[in-house]
Design a protein that fits this description.
Length: 267
């Protein structure tokens, strides 16, 4: 097993093809990048209910502003009190919640969009919670035959829940312990640690029998639609085929995804 931190094509070319397998491909930039993934899904299916409205801050700022103003008008003029105009600004390639901002202030959103390659996404303001704590789920999927119409995707049946440290509420959006779920590992007294099987039982206990089955069915449908977009998109397909031409058959890819559940639709 070799882990490469830098590109070494001469090393790869000298490895015996019969025992060389890859788990990363050149097309991954199109679906492992936050902004590119949102655009990929939109090309395939338009705006889907399971993905919050997302705009590229560099190329789609005018579309975001129009969406924001439309929602604000619905709230102020039409009285849609159930609507929210909260958005989250995220760097396209950073992790661990770094440099993210949640706000309903249009000037602040526009200002933060200027500080690097970022996306602006509708904030899930009514998330499913556990004992009032916000949580997200890490799912793992493995694909085989990524460039083929017969692509197979295997979803690991264990999920990994991660919980915020404070009870969720629509305020104090700069409070990391309330609105984010990662990097909370050092506070053992307040941290909720739970395995997959226990989590499923606890969710059904709090929200009623069958709640998790409904959520999981929606998650599987979402993963399916995502991979359908990947294998049918012409740009991604061409790049994947070009990449796979240089690697042996049998190379697979594993992907991890972080998912939040909207309470209103349990989606």
């Amino acid at each position: 097993f070799i882990w490469l931190a830098e590109s070494h094509p001469e090393l790869i070319s000298n490895l015996p093809p019969s025992c060389t397998f890859y788990n990363q491909f050149g097309s991954e930039i199109h679906y492992c990048h936050k902004g590119n993934l949102a655009q990929l899904i939109r090309r395939h299916s338009g705006f889907v209910p399971w993905m919050p409205r997302t705009y590229d801050a560099q190329t789609e700022l005018h579309l975001f502003a129009a969406d924001y103003l439309r929602r604000q008008r619905e709230i102020e003029v039409e009285g849609k009190v159930e609507e929210s105009n909260l958005w989250i600004v995220k760097p396209t390639t950073m992790a661990r919640s770094m440099d993210m901002v949640v706000t309903s202030s249009l000037p602040l959103l526009l200002r933060n969009a200027e500080t690097g390659p970022k996306i602006i996404s509708k904030y899930i303001h009514n998330p499913l919670t556990y004992k009032k704590r916000k949580f997200d789920l890490r799912l793992v999927a493995v694909s085989r035959g990524l460039a083929s119409p017969n692509c197979e995707v295997f979803l690991y049946d264990k999920i990994f829940p991660r919980f915020a440290l404070e009870d969720y509420s629509l305020d104090n959006f700069d409070c990391y312990e309330k609105h984010w779920t990662v990097m909370n590992y050092t506070n053992g007294e307040r941290m909720i640690k739970m395995m997959s099987e226990e989590f499923v039982v606890k969710i059904d206990e709090e929200y009623g029998p069958g709640t998790w089955d409904k959520c999981y069915a929606n998650l599987k449908a979402m993963i399916t639609e995502t991979f359908e977009a990947i294998i049918t998109d012409e740009v991604v397909k061409a790049k994947t085929e070009e990449s796979l031409a240089r690697v042996p058959k049998g190379s697979n890819a594993a992907f991890g995804t972080i998912i939040g559940i909207d309470r209103s639709e349990e989606r």
